[in-house]
Amino acid sequence: MRTLLMGGVLAILAFTLSACGGSNGSSASDQALERTADTYAISQIERDFHKALSKKDIDMMMRLWAPNATFTFGPGQTATGTGQIREAWLKSKAYKPRTNWLSDHPAFKLRATVNGDRGTLHFECHFIDVNTHQVAAVTAADMDVARVDGRWLITKMIGGTAELKT
Fold first, then answer.
1. Which CATH entry fits the domain spanning 30-161: 3.10.450.50, 3.40.710.10, 2.30.33.40, 1.25.40.10?
2. I need a surface site. Which of 29, 64, 110, 128 has the fewest CB within 10 A?
3. Whole-model pTM above 0.90?
């Protein structure tokens, strides 16, 4: 009886310890997988950003921004909060009805980083006039992003110019 009791206690102890399996957090492979998933999710902001610009879909664009985000789009021109950011985009040349641009975004110029619930995103935008097939504008974006309620959103964007080199 005593042997049976000790065997049961040892079995429960072994099961408990194996279930804990390194109580100091996720394994290195789990952390690497999470980092890769986060980096991918951050890079998807760029894809949706360009899709929203090309379609002139302001609602799609605004779903990418945190409520208290900032958007600097020129010297001394910063929009704060989604209301002002929406207005800035609607006043931009890219959202004008007569502008017929396709937003090209060279993947090799994209850089995304992640550090916990924060990250960064950099990319270039090459706007091609659909009617003339000419490059209409070349811009760049540097963004801070954060995980907000489980989603990666833009918290700060600084837009600028970029030089198109051949």
1. 3.10.450.50
2. 29
3. no
